[in-house]
């Protein structure tokens, strides 16, 4: 088990992350016992991953598992990357989940059974803490042999492919953070220990609250200027050299044409294909509002933004497009 890594959830982010992890792991060592085991509920995703990775590393051990329990029974490090709280509960707590796989190992004080689960999903921090608590105590009430950290990511599918993601890690034990960091740096360029379990997710949803609002603000500003006849390129250049500059204006500008002449090619140039889906942004803002409500934090802008992304996330024309599609939705009000 010590030489086996498991990966569950081979979607837009997961397949890129798993490819980098597998490549860097196999490139770093010729140990014939090194094994990579994967699982996804969609068989096609698993098959596609296996075909691509075995052609990259012929002869190395790359296997499918029929369930998360199967992954946990084989691997000492398990990474999960699924949509949100319901799927994390299913992957970890269902009858064929990771918890059952760990229980089947038996004696947690046997070092060969020790397992670290690294969940990179963006989900409700409270659910993440509850699931981690059950994993830590999978067999006995002693914490140590089995551990789980939350490690949500920033950087999107582009960062996932390039291996430049930032991970925000919530881990009660510093030792588990250090162990997780070793794996995470094969998929990203930084991993930051944010404190106790759940704190990685609080950092992630606070960032996405700001991101969701800044994208709407950028959309309004770009629309205001261009409807009055300004060139999108000139307006973006002014904003990006002035005080309004932010990631949404500089890297992921929502107005087509705004970043022409730069090295950036945001989803707005491809009718908002790819990128970070509007429905996922709606989900993350929902998580942020619920975390804010738990502590009585006022979020007047967050509430407005959540309603807007919820509407986009329920509209079949916009739900799977990059969240910068908010610009297109607003533009329709002025007949653009
Ligand atoms: P996705 O929907 O493309 O991929 C999720 C994968 O999980 C799918 O392949 C799905 O089949 C699989 N899955 C679902 N339930 C499962 C289960 N019970 N067992 C095994 N596999 C299961 O989503 P994504 O874009 O890869 O996002 C994953 C997570 O990363 C989300 O929490 C998202 O908010 C977060 N995130 C996404 C981006 C982005 O740009 N896409 C950026 C940062 C963070």
TrEMBL record:
3-hydroxyisobutyrate dehydrogenase-like NAD-binding domain residues: 198-315
Single GO MF descriptor: NADP binding
EC supergroup of this enzyme: oxidoreductase
Gene Ontology BP terms: L-valine catabolic process
Keyword set, alphabetical order: Branched-chain amino acid catabolism, NAD, Oxidoreductase
Family, per entry: Belongs to the HIBADH-related family. 3-hydroxyisobutyrate dehydrogenase subfamily.
Protein name in UniProt: 3-hydroxyisobutyrate dehydrogenase
Organism: Meira miltonrushii
